[in-house]
Amino acid sequence: MNLELSEEQKLLQDAVEKFFRQESTAARLRAAEPLGHDAGLWAGVVGMGLPMMRVPLSHGGGAMSLLDALLVAELADRHLVCAPLIENMVVARLLARAGGEPAAGWLLRLEQWRYAAQPAGAASQLSALRREFRTLSWPAPSARR
């Protein structure tokens, strides 16, 4: 049994490590504490495609493995990344698996939404999105398969 990382996994790990080391500094972490996130860091994380890495290619994601996501999560933890990376990875994967029109719409929003770029209106925008999400009708479980 080969337990070594593949070349692609090593490249992913190196790229993410370098990015987090440069962008997730102690000073930026302290500055982001009142807001709960670092808008610049989040924009970079989204730009790298990390929140969508576990989503199939057919839904605009990276189709990467759970181990790939684990490598990124471990680095995010090590560098105290002040961004909702893991939550967005999980939600994006679940929406892609749920299927249906409502899930596709939400997946597109996750792919495009930059709430950190609009800190003044982020709370009200998030509240509106949550209300809208609760009103959607989802396909029955048997229809998703």
Tell me the layout of helices and strands.
Elements: H1 7-23, H2 26-32, H3 39-47, H4 66-78, H5 85-98, H6 100-112, H7 122-135, H8 141-144
Helix pairs in contact: 1-4, 5-6
What does the model show?
The protein has 145 residues and is an all-alpha fold. The chain has a single domain, classed as Acyl-CoA dehydrogenase/oxidase, N-terminal domain (Butyryl-Coa Dehydrogenase, subunit A, domain 1), CATH 1.10.540.10. The protein is 63% helix and 0% strand. The protein is built from eight helices and no strands. Helix 1 runs parallel beside helix 4. The chain is flat, with a radius of gyration of 16 Å.
Overview features:
145 residues; mainly alpha; Butyryl-Coa Dehydrogenase, subunit A, domain 1; 8 helices
In short:
This protein is 63% helix and 0% strand.
Give the number of DSSP strands: 0
Instruction: Sketch the major β-sheet.
Output: none
**Structural class determined from secondary elements:** mainly alpha
How many domain units?
Answer: 1
- How many helices? 8
Element pattern in H and E: HHHHHHHH
Gyration radius (Cα, Å) is 16 Å
CATH class: Mainly Alpha
**Spatial gap, N to C terminus:** 33 Å
What's the CATH architecture? Orthogonal Bundle
Mean pLDDT: 82
What is the H level of CATH, i.e. the homologous superfamily?
Acyl-CoA dehydrogenase/oxidase, N-terminal domain
Write down the CATH topology.
Butyryl-Coa Dehydrogenase, subunit A, domain 1
**Overall spatial form:** flat
Share of residues in helices: 55-70%
Detail the poorly predicted runs. 114-122
Kindly estimate the percentage of residues that lie in beta strands according to DSSP.
Answer: under 5%
